[in-house]
## 1
Amino acid sequence: MTQLPRMFGKYELQKFLGGGMSQVYKATDSVLGRTVAVKILTEEGCRDDDAKKRFLLEAQMSGNFIHDNIIRIHDYGELEGRPYIVMEFLTGTDLRGAIDKNQLGDLQNRLHIALQAARALGYVHTRNIIHRDIKPENLHIDENGRVRLMDFGIAKAQNFNLTREGFAIGTPYYMAPEQVMGKPVTPAADVYAFGIVLYEMLTGLKPVTGETVESLFYLILHQQLNMEPLQQSGAPAELIGLVQRCASKKPEERPASFEAVIAELEAILAHIQGAPKSAPAQPPTQPPDLSPDPVSTKKLPLLPIAAAVVAVAIGILFLVKFLGNQDQPVAKKGADPTPTPQQQGPPPRQQDQYGEMILIPESTFVSGREDTVKKLPNYYIDKTEVSVAMWNKFAQAMGRTAKDQPAEFPVTDVAFSEAVEYCTWAGKRLPTAEEWEKAARGKDGRLYPWGNEPDGSKANVKGNPSLKPDSLQPVESMPEGATPEGVLHLAGNAWEWVEDPRKPSPEIVKMFAPLQATIDEAWTTMRGGGADFGIRGASAYEFSTVPAKLKTPWLGFRCVK
């Protein structure tokens, strides 16, 4: 690049941050006024067809990720013949720097970092993507201890092979034996690399070293890890065993998924802290029942989703003025919830300073209009939508303007990114689409929280004869519409954000023209219907695809953990 600063499209490149085949700059988006990082493929990289394809694939894949622990992609494209990616600008340090400077803190803090990394990788794997280059340099930690997974430059979809057969690619120290041998790479390779990184986090040492690549590869293939430094570090036996299994030479001997890794890390952390911190931390008291549960065969007529989006889009014409700058600073994580007493299995409810949470037990359940049978582990979900009172605690802590609305009502006019910030601050996260749907339908597959009948008197929806039309209700109201577990307003009241990245159809994009929404920006879904919509739109499997920047008086959220 020429002398800085210089303009690259609408981005003013201000400082060179580093790079090799691609170069990364600190920059300012001259339109939005926010600081970003711009990654530009070099001229040499543009001449390498494989490098260019990988760069574009990275942009496409990572641009679709919406997760607290994965770097956000704001934009990507090609300019002046050079492909580029625009990312959020991160402050803090990468994990390599934190390890080298001994800045990881105590064992609990190291486990919190490892858990965030595992959750990011678990999310990536649910999208059928294999990262293939897990290393400390690709994990960033900001000043608030929040981890971001970065650099998907050599990631690949499980059904997409960009490299020649037998060609190993990755950072040698963290490559799994099957990668070294050029065999087909599966998600187990990421589990292996995570185990090596976890070893290094706990000991400060690389478990595998060699003076040449050849000697390093020989050790990866043939030498077992030396567990003595781990034992000397004071790590508990369960954690040492997890590292050893993650780094097994044979893929089939490693944990089957990052869900299993996360469950073990949470259990270890809960044991260290002396009380369960979340539902998955508790091992099941008996083997899980893998047989499908009986489900209802009742169906509703197909809801015209396009009509739902039209209804929302009409409202947007009057709501554009509510759109705010979505590039807010990362919120500081709130205090840990109050521990629950030790007991057999996770407690059915948890109470913390951010409200009551209800256990959704591990079981099979049916998902979607086709009643696909799925299974999720234990998790907790907020009993209610996040209220204005709860939101204003967050606003006060962050120095933001409080909402001037009734404290007991659901907070609305909140964009997806703001909902993510609140949940992170409270030590929680947004529910996935499957988690939300399972809480609403239960394992018996009901169509509404109360059963299969579209009873408009049990939800705050348009047409409820006992409620004021088009008005929200307090988050603790209407127990008659609760799920059997006691979760309120999963049908009606405020629509709810869920973490469900999607690409909209061109027709849906056109309906959001007042927001200047584009098909390439972040889109997700909202669920549950609202006070502005009829009971049919509140069935548990229906959803509407909307831009993540959307704000309306009818759209709120709740958290899970």
## 2
Amino acid sequence: MFKVFRTPEFKKALSFYVEGIKGNKKHFYISMSSAILWCFLVVLHPYIIKRVVDDGILLGNTRILVVLLSSLIVIGYTRAISIGTRRYFGMSVSYNVEAGIRNNIFSHMQKLAFQYHDKVPTGELMARASSDASQVRLAYAIAPLASANLFLLFILSLTLLSISLPLGSVVLLSIPGVLWVGAKFAEKAMEVSLRVKEAEATMTTEVEEQLGGIRVVKAFGNENFASDKVDVAIDNIYEKSLDYLNLRTKFIPIFELIPMIITLFVLVLGGFLSVNDYISLGDFIAFNQYVFLLMWPLRITAWFLSEIPGSISAANRILELLNEKPAIVNKKDLEKLPEDGSGTIKFNKVNFQYGNEKIFNDLSFSVKGKKTVAVVGSTGSGKSTLGYLIPRLYQIDSGEIEIDGVNINNLDLSELRNNVSLAFQESFLFSNSAKENIAIGFKDATQEEIENSANVARAHEFISELPEAYETTVGERGYGLSGGQRQRIALARAILRNPRILILDDALSAVDAFTEEEIRNELNSTMKNMTTLIITNRVPTIELCDEVIFIENGKVKAQGKHEDIIKNDNSYMNLFLEEERLGPTK
């Protein structure tokens, strides 16, 4: 019996719940105290009625009758206040814990490396921060009520025995049966509940993906296919929920049937004992009221047991995420970048792979400070990945990456990323103003600095023409702007920080040729003060650079001037012949 309470999942969930209570002790204790007070008052109420019948009505004692009736009024008001107090402070704890869980989940997700986010769908993470957190909140909300009702169950049991030992004993023999049924239900429901949660997470992932790509869906007339995929996910939730419903349908009637049988038994046997003067009329009335009250904690206990599986499943899913250790963390003994460093970069036998796919094999090269270098290679050669490794967005498997002679693993992550700025090929913009999108990570930037960086990226002119200029909200993911405009805002964002190292990952691919040339001319003067890696296969951009790093088969195939490499390396020349055959990519 109660195997569910001995499972590792329950033990982990229980520790999780206790941690949540620690930050809300005061409100939790007030809620529990109010619930226990309510229990005492509930038990006291039938006793007062017994006294009203036996000592007041039957004996004709008006004075005692007035006192007892007054007591019932006071008890009624106090019970109402205790119920309100329990609910308010109990719900306060549950909502506060839920908010804390969601904050912890989001904070922890930001600490996890790209490797984790590459393999776990966004919808799955959203489900854990939404529906799972709400399910855990429910456990905190009903915990004071369930605890109080277990206490009430114990007090009522003693009270029933004190009124009539034979009658009370027979009634109490039914309690283990109700609890056994509840425990069996909880045991079977845990697995079914987990499947429901997983189905909900799958549906959330599907909806998030289809809505995120709604423009592609509509452009290709794929609405029916998208709807079918979401329908399948929703049907899966429906089927799993029906399994849970069928389980409840089998067990819940038993919870109702047993109390009905008990009530009938008490009326028959209790009536017989009262008529034959084994118990008084007041005792008989009080006993019936106590039995009626006993049904309430039994039902609450059954309900609590039915909710436990879902809450345990949700808690364990959240713990699974929170227990995921960040692959990239700060060391204890950190170093500092030299203040007079020029931004030299050195890769020494770096190995890296995505899952089982090897990307770099003993990759080694060095870049002098304040140089502009093009990183060139065929599709899938790891050009973008190289740029992501420098600010430790991914963690290398072995080898070393140094900036100005300092291993990046020995640098504080915030210092490293303040000194390395990256403009992605996919220019993600937030649903904020153009100004806020440019100043991300640089809250103290002045309007002049923002506009200067926008001028370099040739974004100032079109931003100024927006309805509210720099204060204009650009819309979700920047879809209110063209691809080229989004790229220019992203480029301004990268330039604003005036980093030691600037990495441009094909950051001008969506910009027209004329604007690209203007930006390149502006960048010529800006990039003199920083080391710049430009990830591209575009010849006009490559010609802007001091040298080229050509990557092939996970290693540096060649490094030097563009014109020298293209003369001496056939694979490098063939790369551009292929690019020319395919035509412009923008």
